[in-house]
Specification:
Strands 1-5-4-2-3 form a 5-stranded parallel sheet. Helix 7 links the parallel strand 4 and strand 5. It has a single domain, classed as Oxidized Rhodanese, domain 1 (3-Layer(aba) Sandwich), CATH 3.40.250.10. It is built from 8 helices and 5 strands, in the order H-H-E-H-E-H-E-H-H-E-H-E-H. By secondary structure, it is an alpha/beta fold.
Length: about 140
């Protein structure tokens, strides 16, 4: 019985289930959304000087220090400031990222505390994106 629960399929199912509920997104999953999913709201929480060196296509810039304030804006103010619709609290594709992952996780935690229950952190962050995209 114990051996049965350690089969590769059972392990994969358990890990995938945990990842789906853990608030993270991988490079391949994010890559499949960028430019294809109109509902994706990708938030770059790095500092302006970091963003000026490169960004993930379609991302909006909200420095970590402004995440709580900007996610609390009314929908019209958010649209005016960022040029995209403010995501609803239950949006499935609100993704944060930074340079290495830590600030992205802090932003994800802030968003969740505001009620964005499905907010996710791109754990590979811009470092992984730029390496894989050759930028």
């Amino acid at each position: 019985m114990a051996a049965k629960s350690r089969t590769p399929l059972a392990v994969c199912v358990r890990l995938c289930s945990r990842m789906a509920n853990s608030g993270v997104i991988s490079y391949s999953d994010l890559k499949s959304l960028v430019g294809r999913d109109k509902g994706l709201v990708l938030v770059d929480v790095r500092n302006k000087d970091e963003v000026d060196k490169g960004r993930i296509p379609g991302s909006i810039h909200i420095p970590l220090s402004d995440v709580e304030r900007d996610l609390s804006l009314d929908p019209d103010a958010f649209q005016t400031k960022f040029g995209v619709a403010k995501p609803p609290l239950d949006t499935p594709n609100l993704v944060f990222h930074c340079q290495l992952g830590r600030r992205g996780q802090a932003a994800t935690d802030k968003a969740k505390s505001l009620g964005f229950e499905n907010a996710r952190n791109y754990v590979g962050a811009y470092k992984e994106w730029s390496e894989k995209e050759g930028k």
